[in-house]
Specification:
The longest helix is centred in the C-terminal third of the chain and has 27 residues, at about 220-245. The chain has 2 domains: about 1-110 and about 285-320, 2-Layer Sandwich (Nucleotidyltransferase, domain 5); about 125-280, ATPase, nucleotide binding domain (Nucleotidyltransferase, domain 5, 2-Layer Sandwich), CATH 3.30.420.40. A hairpin with a 4-residue loop joins strand 1 and strand 2 (about 10-20). It has 10 helices and 12 strands. Helix 3 (about 105-120) crosses helix 10, helix 5 crosses helix 7 (about 220-245) and helix 7 runs parallel beside helix 8 (about 260-270). With about 325 residues, the protein is α/β, with parallel strands linked by helices. Bound molecules: fe (ii) ion. Fe (ii) ion binds near residues 111, 130, 253, 254 and 286.
Length: about 325
């Protein structure tokens, strides 16, 4: 199959093409995030304006035309409603016009599977960390084949925490990599650390860090915030690995681009002789190729979705997405 995948759950409009599991192209454009964060309606307008051009360049990079495409996938959720809607409608239009099958894809599953297939891990624990999500996941066949959520954030995603802090600290661009830059040469001081079993919360930590900006060196605040937040998710992932006796740890999602998080997880992996893998940034950032890869797997596994049932779901949880392959 030759599958075109569309990702539009948040600030990125991405289009990728895969053929028999091989990624042929992966093009994208990003809505510029200003001081107000992502404004969903404006990001959706941005996606609609850019959709045609990104599809064209993904096809050109793959050396194909629309007539070569034999299936189309799009991100069903989770994500921002107006943004998801643009990807969904684009995919439905393509499916109808070219009479090809269409497949809604879970965004988290896209990140996980593109990384898992790249490294060839059989059964990893996944530390999935992004703007809106922070979860500890592992594959199970209980009831149906899917990723079970062993632990997750009870409030905001760790990426949102870092982005919110970046805005309060007036960093530009206001996201995690700017916090990482500020944290270089920072010194550690204690911050609220909340892990319950394999679940965690970040709002208390964020509130504390923002307060500390008034009377601490911003470098030290950024460093301590990062160290504390990353240590929390690493502790939870380590517990899940020991509990499930799984031996592989996969880092995935936008925040997995953080070098420091990788370093911390690597220390834990080494201590227990677990195999660890962090996908290239291209696949940890939101992208269309991951949606193409999973849509192709789903279609290959015989999964079908009538076009009129191809909806969006802002709260589509990864543990309800079937992994039939
Ligand atoms: Fe993502």
């Amino acid at each position: 199959m030759v599958v075109l995948g569309i990702e539009s759950s948040a600030h990125t409009f991405g289009v990728g093409v895969s053929e028999n599991g091989k990624i042929l192209s992966n093009e994208k454009v990003m809505y510029p995030i200003g001081a107000g964060g992502i404004i969903p309606a404006k990001a959706a307008d941005f996606h609609a304006e850019n959709a045609n051009q990104i599809i064209k360049s993904a096809l050109a990079k793959a050396g194909l035309t629309m007539g070569d495409i034999t299936g189309v996938g799009y991100t069903r959720g989770p994500g921002l409603g107006p943004c998801l809607r643009i990807g969904q409608l684009t995919a439905k239009t393509i499916a109808a016009k070219y009479s090809i099958p269409i497949m809604p894809v879970n965004h988290a599953l896209g990140h996980i599977e593109v990384a898992r297939l790249a490294v060839g891990f059989k059964d990893p624990i996944v530390l999935y960390v992004s703007g809106g999500n922070s979860q500890i996941l592992g594959f199970t066949e209980e009831k149906f084949k899917h990723y079970h959520i062993y632990g997750e954030t009870f409030d905001i995603g760790i990426g949102n925490m870092l982005d919110s802090f970046a805005r309060e600290a007036k960093l530009n661009p206001a996201w995690g990599s700017s916090v990482a830059k500020l944290a270089e040469n920072g010194k550690y001081f204690d911050m609220p650390y909340t892990v319950k079993g394999m679940d965690f919360t970040f709002t208390g930590l964020l509130t504390n860090a923002v307060k500390c900006l008034a009377d601490h060196d911003p470098k030290d605040v950024a460093f301590s915030l990062q160290e504390t937040g990353f240590a929390m998710v690493c502790e939870a992932a380590e517990r899940a690995l020991l509990l499930t006796k799984k031996r592989e740890i996969l880092l995935s999602g936008g925040v997995a681009q953080s070098k420091r998080l990788s370093e911390m997880m690597n220390l834990i992996a080494k201590a227990h002789s677990f195999r660890m893998y962090n996908a290239p940034n291209e696949y940890n950032a939101d992208n269309g190729a991951m949606i193409a890869v999973v849509a192709e797997k789903m279609l290959d596994a015989g999964m079908q979705k009538p076009i009129e049932k191809c909806d969006i779901n802002q709260k589509y949880r990864v543990d309800s997405a079937e992994v039939r392959w």
